[in-house]
Amino acid sequence: MGDLHISVGGLDMEGTTRFLGKITAGQVTSKQGRHLLMEGYHNLTIAATVENDNFPDTFLHLGVDSVSVGGNGVTVVTPDGQSLFKATQDDMLVGADRLTVTGSQGAILQGSLQTPILYSRGTQELRLESGTGSVSGRAAKEVSLEARDGDISLVSSNDLTLRSKLGGIRFDNPKIYLTELLTGSDGDSVTPTETPQETQLEAPPKREDTTTTTTTTTTTTTTTTSSSSSSSSVEVYQVCVCPNGRLFLMEATVMCQFADNICR
C-alpha cells in the first residue's frame, strides 16, 4: 500500500494500493489530471447494492475474455450528456446518427424494428427475411422501396397480394411482362405458355379494285400465303379476364370466352 492520509472527505492514497478482499466505498475518484486505474488479476467486479450484498442491484463484471453488465437499465452518454445508447427490459434506444451492422450474417431481431430508413451501403444487397414467420412493413403515410442501381425482387411460395384500401394500383412502365399465364382454347383445353415479350401485328393489306375474276383469285391467294407465313413466325395472344379476376390468354383470332379449367 502506498502513502495513506486521512482527510475530512475520506482517505487519500498515493501510489499503488492492493486489496486482498472486498472494498466498500461511497465514491472512488482520482486527483484532477490523474488517471484512475482499477485492475484485477483474474476479474474485476464493480457492484452497487441496496440491501443484500449477495444480490447486487447493478454490477459491471470484467472477466478474462468477457464483460457482463447487469441492472434494470444500461445507459451510455456523451461527455455533454447526450444519450448514445439506452437499454431496458421494455425497449432499447440508439441515439447515434447512424447504426451500422458489419457482420456477414446481418442482424437478427426477435421483435420489431422501428426506423425512418433502412438501406445498404454501395452495391451490397439489402435482404429482409423471416425464416419461419412473416415480414411486414408499416408506416403512417408511405412505404417506399427503391433500388437505384439494380432490381427489386418479391418471391413468395404462396400468394402475393397487392391491395389498396382507398386508392388504386398503378403500373407505370411501358414494358409489363406476364410470362406464365395459361392459354385457353375453343375446347377448354389449358396449356401453359410463355407470353412473347414483343409482338406486333402486321398491317392488313390494302384492298385493290379488280376488273376480272382471274385477278381477284390471284390477289386472294397471295394474301392468304402472306398471312399464313406471318402467323407461323409470330404468335400473338390477347389477355382475357375470368369473372373472379384471373388473367389468361386466348388466340388473337378468336373472341375471349369462358375457360372452364382456368376460371373455376
From TrEMBL:
Keywords: Cell membrane, Cytoplasm, Cytoskeleton, Disulfide bond, Glycoprotein, Membrane, Signal-anchor, Transmembrane, Transmembrane helix. It comes from the Eukaryota. InterPro entries: Sarcoglycan (IPR006875), Sarcoglycan_gamma/delta/zeta (IPR039972). The keyword Cell membrane applies. It is found in: Cell membrane, Sarcolemma; Cytoplasm, Cytoskeleton. Residues 183-229 are annotated as: Disordered. Signal peptide: none annotated. It is a single-pass type II membrane protein. The keyword Glycosyltransferase does not apply. Its main location: membrane. GO terms for cellular component: cytoskeleton; sarcoglycan complex; sarcolemma. Residues 191-200, 211-229 have a biased composition (Low complexity). Belongs to the sarcoglycan beta/delta/gamma/zeta family. PANTHER family: EG:4F1.1 PROTEIN, SARCOGLYCAN. This is Uncharacterized protein. The lineage of its organism: Eukaryota, Metazoa, Ecdysozoa, Arthropoda, Crustacea.
